[in-house]
Write a structure and sequence with these properties.
mainly alpha
Length: 86
Amino acid sequence: MDVRSYVELKSQTRRDETATRLRRVLQIALLLAERSMTRAELAETLNVSERRITDDITLLRAAVVVIEREHGAGYRATLPNPADRT
């Protein structure tokens, strides 16, 4: 494999990883908007580690998605309503 092919392959891999994470983050937001779930339940449902769930929840919070944590009950999200934007 030449250098150019290698760089293109790495670039495509990075785009695929980014798209996969974006889909997972959106799934987490939608799941938590429906019902409370623990980190372990989310990890099992999405087939990823609990650490990855923690990182994704941090990302969602940084994007102004309100995610509350109830001890023993798990996380719950409140998604912003686009109609409320002014």
